[in-house]
Design a protein that fits this description.
By secondary structure, this protein is α+β, with helices and mostly antiparallel strands. The chain contains 6 helices and 15 strands. It has one domain: 4-Layer Sandwich (CNF1/YfiH-like putative cysteine hydrolases). Strands 1-2-3-15-7-4 form a 6-stranded mixed beta sheet. Strands 5-6-9-8-10-14 form a 6-stranded mixed beta sheet. A 3-stranded antiparallel beta sheet has the order 11-13-12. The structure holds zinc ion.
Length: 270
């Protein structure tokens, strides 16, 4: 296992061992344990776009931020639409989302080299990608559902870090966090056709079930896209936690028929 479940004041979150070893960052991936939400949002729903009470989202987000060790007031939030726009977060963005109004939208990835600014992105089965450049001291998060994976948002985030921070692909560490595994992710032919267009080969991450149905491995597809741009195999850490198999610990859009809460990724340079 390359992760552990950390519990702080009743809030449980996932910490990834390779990132835990880096003293210059704080990070975490939330579970559903330790919040105030009820019914299908039980307990730690962080989804700002869900039908949960706004005060619950704020309380839950405060609890998760505190557990991870970042300031709620400083959070910069994403506005995910399954596309590939990446926002470069700077000091002037500090607090945009909860404390300050957002003056940006349609952003599925955030990167920064500013210290003390926690980035947050949201998930329930889609793939969370964490990026750390330990040399240039830059971090990022991306949201890769199947559309973002087809768009190779992970690769584009690395490319943006190269452009903005002069990062080298071979220095960047990427963690592929808890999300739906191939065990639970059946898709139809139209989805696979999109992958066939944008990936040179799909045999390592698509398994046909017959009848126009396929099992799709988003972890492997993301890994391939990251390798294409030069991220080293040994620097791609796949947590291999399936949200669909673990609904006691995670919200799963697929397993709970869309009627569920959201987890979040946080990363921050100390
Ligand atoms: Zn599964």
């Amino acid at each position: 296992m390359n992760y552990k479940i950390v519990e702080k004041e009743g809030v449980q979150f996932v910490a990834f061992n390779p990132l835990e070893e880096m003293s210059f960052i704080k990070h975490g991936f939330s579970t559903r344990i330790g919040g105030v939400s009820k019914s299908n949002f039980t307990q730690l729903n962080l989804g700002r776009k869900t039908d949960d009470l706004p005060e619950n989202i704020i309380e839950n987000t405060k609890r998760f931020s505190t557990a991870v060790g970042v300031k709620f007031e400083d959070l910069v939030v994403s506005d995910q639409i399954h596309k590939d726009k990446i926002k470069v977060v700077t000091e002037e963005d500090r607090g945009k989302g909860f404390i300050k109004e957002m003056d940006f939208d349609s952003v599925d990835a955030l990167i920064t080299n500013s210290r003390g600014i926690p980035l947050i992105t949201y998930f329930a089965d889609c793939v969370p990608l964490y990026f750390v450049d330990p040399v240039k001291k830059a971090v990022g998060l991306a949201h890769a559902g199947w559309p973002g994976t087809v768009l190779k948002i992970g690769q584009k985030t690395v490319s943006k870090m190269q452009k903005e921070y002069q990062s080298k692909a071979e220095d960047i560490i990427v963690v592929i966090g808890p999300s739906i595994g191939i065990c639970c992710y059946e898709v139809s032919e139209d989805v696979i056709n999109k992958f066939n267009t944008d990936f040179t080969e799909t045999s390592s991450f698509v398994v046909s079930k017959g009848g126009g149905k396929y099992m799709l491995d988003l972890w492997e597809a993301n890994r391939i896209a990251l390798k294409e741009i030069g991220v080293l195999d040994r620097n791609i850490i796949v947590s291999k936690i399936c949200t669909g198999c673990n609904t006691d610990l995670f919200f799963s859009h697929r397993k709970e028929n869309g009627n569920t809460g959201r987890m979040a990724s946080i990363i921050q340079l100390v």
